[in-house]
Amino acid sequence: xxxxxxxxxxxxxxxxxxxxxxxxxxxxxxxxxxxxxxxxxxxxxxxxxxxxxxxxxxxxxxxxxxxxxxxxxxxxxxxxxxxxxxxxxxxxxxxxxxxxxxxxxxxxxxxxxxxxxxxxxxxxxxxxxxxxxxxxxxxxxxxxxxxxxxxxxxxxxxxxxxxxxxxxxxxxxxxxxxxxxxxxxxxxxxxxxxxxxxxxxxxxxxxxxxxx
Length: 212
Hints:
Number of domains: 1
Number of helices: 7
Shape: globular
């Protein structure tokens, strides 16, 4: 129980800090869109080509990286069909049942994100895991140049700016991985709730963390 509790605290502590930082990406996105508006109406400036896509990338990062934190706050959307009148242990049983399928779903999303990231680096023939492993080994052996030598034709967006797609796909991998870790932590907490009947068995709720 101690090891599981430590795992939950580590995961929730990490996602809490990342989520608090990700909150402010919305202001960065607003600044980018404001700059876009200024450049479009100003007679002394050319409209920026990069603003729309950067704003889209920031929005993706905002949602993906903030997802685990929203689960901690219990602010994710759910349908309540009698759930609110259940006892704490019964709620934990229902949550554990549903979170099990969420873990499976996130696993598929993570695999898909890895494949898409591999494709964005120009891997059209080799399997994803051997390719990414080779890139990592080349990076630690020969640095950035060695890793870049493993790439193929870099995938770019179809806009006139032609932004490389691998940075946002890397963020998606990180986000899905963090969400998967948070989902497993929630599953562990649900099991503990079923045994103890406590709403916060490991004392990891964000409200408790803010009060310390």
